[in-house]
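Our consortium's second objective concerns turning raw sequence data into structural hypotheses that experimental partners can test. To show how far this objective has progressed, the report includes one record in full. It was chosen at random from the queue rather than selected for favorable results. The single chain below, 286 residues long, was entered without modification.
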Amino acid sequence: MSHSPSITRRLGAIGPWALVLPASLALLLLLVLPVAGTLMESFGNPKGIWENYRLFFSSSYNRAVLIRSFWIALQATAVSLVAGFFGAYMIANSRPGLKRVLLIVSVFPLLTGVVVRSFSWMAILGRNGIVNTALIQLGLIDQPLSLLFTQGAVIVGLAYLFTPLMILSLVGVLETIEDDLYLAAESLGASPFGVFRQVTLPLAVPGMIVGSVLVFTGSLATFVTPRLLGGEQQMTLATLLYQKAMISFDWEAANTIAAIMMAVTILCVFLMGWLVRRATSARAAQ
């Protein structure tokens, strides 16, 4: 009995590790090891560890796909930022009952599968879709427009796909802004736009950064939407990865593309952390 307190302390020290161990092992087996294996394979060319990357970047087609992927992801992020900011601003400044309804409506698309949401845009933008039918009936065009399999279709689909994430990132930040700050700015003679520019926008920067990184990395990595709305004409890194792995069976090229996408994602996460720290420091300094 005299040793029971010591045993209890030891069990108490081991307890948290025992609780974390199963999840850590699952994370190691299901995520870390496959990712590490993919990275190792990308450096496994007998001609040199950088040979696969040299082959990838030496291809003008691959470079064009890489640039297109970044450009589409940036434009989708910009559209999501604008739409998500004003949506989140409206939700944050609504009455409590209406706020819950608007928040549910804004995140409801997340409950629907990506394939379903992408197919809905195919029905909207197709040659016999809603947009072309409406334009023809209004007499604005004589022949259906080619809206599908364009860069614009991919951007719209990605923005629709990820704007709810932007809204969720911004609502929490906008709700923390005290009403006293708005009243103080108005009492000092600031116009409504001045209040928005000098109070709301600077304080919302951390949420904007987090949301933008989520949308950018998601837009860069998603496969279904670019494949359905862009087709072969608007090849992105994700669809090129699928083509190399499942059609050409070029696993070395597929591993290289996957490694590049992972590197971009990790870089964005670190950049996000650095920007948020700078924004938080600037806000504290003020």
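The partners drew two points from this record. The mean pLDDT is 86. The radius of gyration is 24 Å. Both points have been shared with the crystallography group to help prioritize constructs.
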